[in-house]
Automatic annotation (TrEMBL):
It is a lipid-anchor. Its main location: membrane. Keywords: GTP-binding, Hydrolase, Lipoprotein, Membrane, Nucleotide-binding, Prenylation. The chain holds residues 1 to 184 of 227 of the full protein. It comes from Lupinus albus (White lupine). This is Putative small GTPase superfamily, P-loop containing nucleoside triphosphate hydrolase. Belongs to the small GTPase superfamily. Rab family. One of its GO terms (cellular component) is endomembrane system. GO terms for molecular function: GTP binding; GTPase activity. It is found in: Endomembrane system.
Length: 184
């Protein structure tokens, strides 16, 4: 699908609410900052604490504003509010490829989505920190899981920018198709 980024915030055709979910420390905030601002904050410990960032893009000659929500650390206290999910039509569910536990929790996050979000929400499963070598989650393993669960899947590194654009673009394209086909 034709895709480009624009700076204008003028008239928009679509507004997509996207949520970031996944365990604390997997790199959600860094993925968001890399995608929206092309930044990686080396000093950040965990979660920078913004509510959401927006990025305006052109898809299929339409101006789409993606409003991408970050948990701002709520997940540490098991307290993601239902408001966080309200109106979301896409989710980027991240785990850390070097933390098996964060992958084991993906099912819990899927349940949470099923409970609180639209049933046709598009989901991109993202294995982040692919720049690290201490891998605990094999790519094939995650890929197979994603296929079984009908999720899109990609491995990324917010640190070195690998596949971050592809992860968000892939998700936004799917959201766009769902919206066009009125599945959501
Ligand atoms: P969040 O709690 O899921 O929002 O995670 P953060 O974005 O705050 O990141 C948690 C920690 O992981 C921080 O120390 C980041 O610098 C680090 N981090 C995030 N993404 C990457 C990555 O792609 N590679 C590496 N090596 N570290 C990362």
């Amino acid at each position: 699908m034709a895709y480009s980024q624009i700076d204008s915030d003028g008239g928009i055709d679509y507004m997509f609410k996207i949520v970031l979910i996944g365990d604390s420390g997997v790199g959600k905030s860094q993925l968001l900052h890399r995608f929206v601002k092309n930044e990686f904050n080396l000093k950040s410990k965990s979660t920078i604490g913004v509510e959401f960032l927006t990025k305006t893009i052109v898809m299929d000659h339409k101006i789409v504003k993606a409003q991408i929500w970050d948990t701002a650390g709520q997940e540490r206290y098991q307290a993601i509010t239902t408001a966080y999910y309200r109106g979301a039509i896409g989710a980027l569910l991240a785990y850390d490829i070097t933390k098996r536990r964060s992958f084991d929790h993906v099912e819990k996050w899927l349940e949470e989505l099923r409970m609180h979000a639209d049933k046709n929400i598009a989901i991109m499963l993202v294995g982040n920190k692919s720049d690290l070598t201490a891998r605990e989650v094999p790519t094939e393993f995650a890929k197979e899981f994603a296929e079984q669960q009908d999720l899109f899947f990609i491995e990324t590194s917010a640190l070195n920018s690998s596949n971050v654009e592809s992860a968000f673009h892939g998700l936004l394209s799917q959201v766009y198709e769902n919206v066009i086909k009125k599945h959501i």
